[in-house]
Amino acid sequence: MPRRSIAVIRRVFGPILLLWWPAISAQPDGGAQELFANHHASVMQIRVMDNAANNKSSTGSGFLVDDEGMIATNYHVIASAIDAPDKYRIELLLGDESVLVAKVKNVNVVSDLALLQVELPGAVALALATKASLKGDTVYSIGFPYDLGITVIPGTYNGLAPHSAANRVHFSGSLNAGMSGGPAFNEEGEVIGVNVATAGNQMSFLVPVQDLEDLMASSTPDPQVPYSELLVSQLQKNSQRMISQLLDGDWQTVPLGGAQALDEVTDFLRCWGNSKDMNDSTDKRPFFAIRSCQTDHNIYVKQGLSTGKIELQFYWLSSTELNSIQFYNHYESIFSRYRPGNTGRRQDLGNWSCEEEFVTANNADNELTKSVFCARAYKKLKGIYDVLFLQGSVSRDEQAHMIHFTIAGTTQELALAFTEQFMESGIW
């Protein structure tokens, strides 16, 4: 790639304004009733309270993981209290209807886990599983769905979800809102995961217990340092892991119309295709063929802000029925519609800063292309960016090849490294 192009990309980051953030013993008989009777006292509802309204803003679940009053839950359950600690407080509702105020002890925004601390004399921790579960094992999830009281949900363990950008256990059971952060047990009464998400139709997901153990073993952050700095570090490490795997992957290409598209480089970047049905006489659009690739995992940072997703799209367009002006207008309308897949609001993200340049493609035809590189900074997460790259052919009258990628929650260095390899890969 020409050095001038890399210099243009580097200039994008210049004007961006940055703002500154004794365990319970195993049970030999694992029926749901016995499990509930033995362990429900160590599971509690977590409420994030709005201080001004003095009422709950959101609810979730949590459970005791040591005898000193340490509670495990999901990061997304208490994210609002991390983002605005003066506005919200975290309370635990115990089985006897008593309420305790909890402090945040540690978090991992990438794995979606949090540890809380309360003063709870006589606390009895749940036992964490010491052996791996097998596909087909019965699993029992416990939590507080829809503020309706504690509930037990039976299901099946299906192993770690394949092709996932995050560690997730596939659980065949119906988790519901409010159960996030609750424990999932094997039949011996040991915790094998933490409730985290559902995709409906008896398909839910758990954070594996190994991720919880890693968080418990990690150092507790300095209380004088804003949690935003911890989140930045975790997002940087996550992006480093994913981008490194992509850069080290097998960059093979597959045909797409009259061009080439990138094949599946890593397990966590899955691709899907679509094209115009030439037998459909009602479809008056020019012929198109699309290959879209993306990761399956959005990292929840706060309400209205998610990150961590990687997307690639390759688009072939051709027509013999439109004149050159009509074709270019159609092509330009597609080119201008690309948007990143993650969500964010003005209070969380800066404005896009973009540079545009015409460059010669690295292919046999030395095709002239239009390249656009954009970046926006996260206001409270210093050093974290979203990047958007578009490239499209401009030297053909009846055909066009467009390429797009977005990387959410990355660094300048990683964005530049990926962009350079992408442009030099010979996809064109």
List keywords for this structure.
single chain, 428 residues, alpha+beta, Thrombin, subunit H, six-stranded antiparallel beta barrel, 23 strands, 37% strand
- Topology order in helix (H) and strand (E) letters: HHEEEHEEEEEEEEEHHEEEEEEEHEEEEH
Largest sheet: 7 strands, antiparallel
The Cα radius of gyration reads 25 Å
Per the principal axes of the C-alpha atoms, what is the gross shape? elongated
* Largest beta sheet: strand ordering: 15-16-19-23-22-21-20
Class inferred from helices and paired strands: alpha+beta
Helix content class:
10-25%
In DSSP terms, counting alpha (H) and pi (I) runs of 4 or more, how many helices?
7
Low-pLDDT ranges:
16-30
Mean pLDDT value: 88
Which strand-content bin applies to the residues?
Answer: 35-45%
How far apart the termini lie comes to: 13 Å
Whole-number count of domains: 2
Textual characterization of the structure:
There is one protein chain. By secondary structure, the protein is of the alpha+beta class. The chain has 2 domains: 3-17 and 232-423, no CATH class; 32-219, Thrombin, subunit H (Beta Barrel). It has 7 helices and 23 strands. The strands form 5 sheets. Strands 15-16-19-23-22-21-20 form a 7-stranded antiparallel beta sheet, with helices on both faces. The protein is elongated. The two termini are 13 Å apart. The relative contact order is 0.13.
